[in-house]
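Risk register update: the risk that structure generation would not scale has been downgraded. Supporting records follow, first protein first.
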Amino acid sequence: MGSFLVTLPVKWEVYVKRLADEHDTDVSKVIGGMFEWAFSVSDSKRQFEVWLDKAYPPKGQAEDESMAEGEEASEAEEEAEDGAEEELHEDREYSEDST
């Protein structure tokens, strides 16, 4: 098993350290046990993966979504400009017709 450096939110760090002390074991064993327990059911794994995909999209997916959003914004901007140009032309034609 590899070792990782993990930073826990303060409230969870205090909680996990207290549990480790109460059970006279190492914090890393408590965290490892927590992962074993949390992911022992395939539904829990899938639920975690869904959350992770939403919170931190997989590599490439976030970039693809960002590019798609940028393209949509560009298209919307172009449509707005086209609409403004059409209105300007209609106003000019109306002004010319009324004189």
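Supporting record for the second protein:
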Amino acid sequence: MLSLSDLPPPAEEALVVYIEMREEDLHFFESAVRGLYGIVNPRRDMKLHHGTIYYKNYIAPDLREEFEELLNTMKSYIFIGDHFVEESLP
């Protein structure tokens, strides 16, 4: 019989990261990260902060370093501006 103590601990909550990008670049970003990387779950939800549009993305907390590398790579192809984790919004 399986005991609840035999189950692995629950996964950490995903980080909600907002990325500054243009709407026309959003489609390319979504396609690239879904098809090639699999470390980001992009959404079309957006947030307007100080006149700048940020798009919502979910990432696993343990993939944050890979996420930063991905953003740096994507900057070679599309405009990627500032980004922040939802809790760190000033």
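The first helix runs from residue 23 to 37. On this basis the risk owner (M.S.) recommends closing the item.
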